[in-house]
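Notebook entry, structure prediction.
Reason for the run: the old model in the group folder had no record of what sequence produced it. Starting over properly, with the input documented here first.
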Amino acid sequence: MRVIIHDLENKYNKLLLQKCDRIIVVDGKYSACRGCFNCWTKHPAECFIKDSLHEVSKEIGRADELIIITENYYGMYSPPVKNILDRSIGISTPMSIYRGKEMHHTTRYGMRELLSVYAYGEMTDAERESFLFMIKRNALNLGYKHYSFTYLESIGGLGEI
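New structure, fully documented this time:
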């Protein structure tokens, strides 16, 4: 399954739906993570907040390929995209395992193939390095075997996805 998370305008949904099985849109119709960890312990992979991200952990966890399209915010995901990723903490468990000679949480859905991040907006070399480092760490922590990072000079580059 291929899942796309994006912070683009809704007019891009039609194009992106042709390239994936599911789109998770930054629409602001959801709450921020409250840090209760119920999605880890009481109700695995389900958030107690009953909004559009109630089962986002399951949707992301089942994705063999996760694609994130985000505006650059100082070498990081945009705040709304980060909010979605925070709400998906239930894709892992509170238990730990060694991965890459480091301790990480065990994945609830097993290892997955590819985490791809496409960033747009102005970006310095330092921000690009920061993004690449973060994506590498996210891929390892979230249980992705591979990762890629692409800087889009313009949104017109979305056809490459």
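Summary: Helices lie at 13-17, 56-61, 79-87, 125-142.
The old model has been moved to the deprecated folder.
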